[in-house]
Amino acid sequence: MRVSKCFALGRTQPTLDFVDVHVDTDTAVFVDPNAIRALDTTWGAECRSLLQHFFQHILNLIANGSNNEAMSLLASLRERNEFHLGFSVGESQGRGFGSGHASDVWKALTKSKAAKTGLLQDIEDTCLLIEGIGPDMVSDAACNVIRGPLIRYTQDMCRFYGIPMQPEVASGPIWNPQTLSWEEQLIELPVVKHQRLLLVPKVIARVNFSFSNDEYFRHYLLPQLQKEELAANSGLVQLLKDGRRRVTKKSLVDKYGAGKLVCVDLTIPRAQVLNKYRNDKRQRAGRAMTHDEVAEAVHTDIPDWDQLLQRVLKVVPGNAGATDYENAIEALLTALFYPALLHPFKQHPIHQGRKRVDITYANAANSGFFHWIGLHHPSAMIFVECKNYGKEIGNPELDQISGRFSPNRGKVGLLFCRSLENADLMDRRCRDTAGDHRGFVMVLDDERLTQLVNEKKAHPSSVEFPRLRHLFTQLIS
Fold it and tell me: What superkingdom does the record give (predicted)?
């Protein structure tokens, strides 16, 4: 049973910000630390810092010979069935560094030349260079290190989607970078079958782990060795009939062997090869799974754009339908703008609670329209206001949303309404607001929203949103 069904959310995976995992078994996706590094949000920065800090502390302990302390820290990296990610058959089990694996991992790390020579830099490097460590173990370990941010994320999602939480639930070990220790607290969390549940943002989930020992060996190390053998005109060089010279990868494997220990030995004098691999991976790490890829991995449905749009359009205008309209808009936007806009908040308080915004999103775009916005204008957060009426919308509504902008939070917003009696006049008012340096507001009624959805249906993988770009261009022209 999935989270959405367990808690009767009435939602499908595309309209949820988190991975809609099975609560009684594992879902076959991983948390990839490389994906976390590419997440350009405040939450992502906190997670990156925790991962870097924890693993560097482990490496420092290895260098200093502090075996007992390192063993104790590694033992807290086991999964406790709460993330529900990975390949376990039946009930979630996890494959973290801790528990029975702690001793083996510690021995592998302490004995590894990769640790002693400084090749290891980040937790995902262990997939390449340490025997016995694979993607599932790194994923579980990463989830444990970022448990603190995941707890707060889970609490945010529970409040947002109406998932009940129980008080005084044991948090599990939370890494404290100030005290260099694991700490536990009693907190609010959802509980299923007497087990706490932690939700994971789908933007950091991957089917295929970005770091692969086989890929690194065959497509980075071996080509470098081929160049070296050719340059030295070694005995491995073959002369072809057409005069070309070659060194086969098979002959290199026969000479040097294969496996992670071999990778370490070959990489130590060729650190530039590993650096290139890391850089290549990080340049490509920003691409989150598409809706289709999530659906295939998690075995859920792809977005039904017509259904999501009709849910908005069928709401009767007026105060009585205001909440239904806001909920329908949010469900559509969460699917429509993924993975550019993430971590939705509803009725978000600002100015010590004196003002509230209907919905806010974190702008995590690394390409497309919202990325372009982020490069040129303050837009760490995108503000959304929903007005379940239309013809009478005007300056008061513009003043309301623009009054909630700030350089730190962002100065870009979307104002949704049902109809516009004079769209040109409304657009001029928005342009005046921008010209007065009070921020950028794009107004979308039912007709414009339908155009936006039709663009997505025509180009499902695009994050360019031409209709929004056109509206924004009008504001600055």
Answer: Bacteria
Same domain, 225 and 182: no
Query: What's the structural domain count of the chain?
Result: 3
3-state secondary structure of 183: strand
Pairwise CA distance, residues 381 & 364, whole Å: 9
5-19, 75-89, 121-135: which range is least confident on average? 75-89
Note whether 347 and 326 are same-domain residues.
yes
Contacts of 58 (CB under 8 A, 6+ apart): 70, 73, 74, 109
* Predicted confidence (pLDDT) per residue in 9-33, tens digit: 999 999 999 999 999 888 999 999 9
Of 147, 182, 206, the domain-final residue: 206
Q: Tell if the pTM clears 0.85, that is, is over it.
A: yes
- Residues 402-420 have pLDDT tens digits of 988 999 999 999 999 999 9
Residue after which a domain boundary falls, among 222, 253, 284: 284
Give pairs for 5-8: CB < 8 Å, separation 24+: 6/192, 7/161, 7/162, 7/163, 7/164, 7/190
Asked if 33 and 55 count as a contact pair (C-beta separation under 8 A), the reply is no
Same domain, 322 and 470: yes
Confirm whether 109 is domain-assigned.
yes
Find tokens 């262990």 and name the residue: 126
Q: Is 133 left (phi over 0), alpha (psi -120 to 50) or beta?
A: beta
Query: What residues make up the domain containing 136?
Result: 3-206
Q: Which residues contact 85 (CB under 8 A, 6 or more apart)?
A: 19, 21, 26, 27, 29, 30, 31, 139, 140, 143, 200, 205
- For residues 44 and 63, membership in a common domain is answered with yes
User: Tens of pLDDT along 41-79?
Assistant: 999 999 999 999 999 999 898 888 887 788 788 888 875
